[in-house]
Amino acid sequence: MIVTENPPIVWLQSQDAYFPSDIGAQLSHTKPEINFAVVNGAPSPLTLDNLASLNNLGGSKIFLTSVDDITKNPAWLKGVKPDANGKTNGATSSTVVVNDHGAGNVDAFYFYFYAYNQGNTVFGQELGDHVGDWEHNMVRFKNGVPQSGAIYDPISSANFFRYDAASGAFTPYDGNSPTNWLQFVGQWGDEQYPKSDPRQKVILGISAASKFVSGPTGPRDKALNRTEVCPPKDKTQCFVSPILRP
Residue 149: its pLDDT value, please? Predict the structure, then answer.
C-alpha cells in the first residue's frame, strides 16, 4: 500500500518531555464535561467504540477533561518514548486516514496523538499548554507518487482507515479497528481554565495569553476532503514541500 511505503518520519526534539500517547488510554484518564460539569448519561467506561455517543449529549461542547490535576504532571501525560525503530511499544499513538479521490489521486493523513501539549515560553511565562494534542501531516499521492512529505515512525504504531467523503464514514483496513471514536465531535482535552482557577496564569489579563488553553478536536475536523494540500482554515500556517527530503 502506497501510504505505508512513503510515510513521514517525525524527528522528535531532543529535549521533549512529552511523547506520542495511546489514543484509547486517553479515555481512561479523562471524563466528559461541559462548563466544568460532568456530562450526565455518558457511557462508563468510555471507549473507542462508544465515544461518538457523546455527540448526542452535548457534542462539540464536550471536553474530555483530565481526572487528575495536570499541574502535578501525572505519568500518563508523558506518553511513550519511541524505541530505536520509532515504535511506541504498547501504545497505538497514530491513526492513518486515506481519502481516495479517484483518477490516481490519493490523500493520506498521518495523525499523531499526544496526551499533553506543552506550549511555548513568552516573557518567562509558559503559554498554550493543553491536555490532548492531535498533530498531522498530509501526503498527496498522484498515481502512486508522493507529492509532499515531512521529516517517530507513525505507521509502526497506527491503525489505518479509508475515508468516504460522501458519507463521512471510516472503514478500517484490517476490518477490526474501532471507528466510533472517529465520529466524536468534541474536544480531546480540558476546557480552558478560567482566570479564577489557581492553576491558570494569564499575562496582562489577556485570555489569549493563558498558560492553559482548551484541548483540540480530533481527526474528523481536519478537512479530510481537501482540494488543495493545505486545509482551508490554516493556509498561512501550512508549508507544502514539493519534494521528498530528509
Answer: 39
Greater confidence (123 vs 28) lies with 28
User: Is pLDDT above 60 for 239?
Assistant: yes
Asked if pLDDT for residue 109 goes beyond 80, the answer is yes
Q: What's the pLDDT at 226?
A: 87
Contact 24, 121 (CB under 8 A): no
Asked if residues 107 and 226 have their Cβ atoms less than 8 Å apart, the reply is yes
Q: Which residue has the cell 496523538?
A: 113
DSSP 215: P
CA distance 40 to 43: 9
What CA–CA distance (Å, rounded) separates 110 from 3? 9
Query: Is the pLDDT confidence value at 1 over 80?
Result: no
CA distance 53 to 27: 14
Separation between Cα atoms, residue 93 and residue 20, nearest integer Å: 6
**81-115: buried (b, 16+ CB within 10 Å) or exposed (e) per residue?**
ebeeebbbeebbbbbbbbbeeeeeebbbbbbbbbb
**Pick from 179, 181, 174, 168: nearest CA to 217:** 181
User: Beta strands of the chain (E only): which ranges?
Assistant: 30-34, 37-38, 63-66, 94-102, 105-117, 120-122, 125-127, 130-142, 145-146, 158-164, 169-172
CA angle 44, 182, 94 (to 5 degrees): 105
32 and 63 Cβ atoms separated by less than 8 Å: yes
**Count of beta carbons in the 10 Å neighbourhood of residue 32:** 26
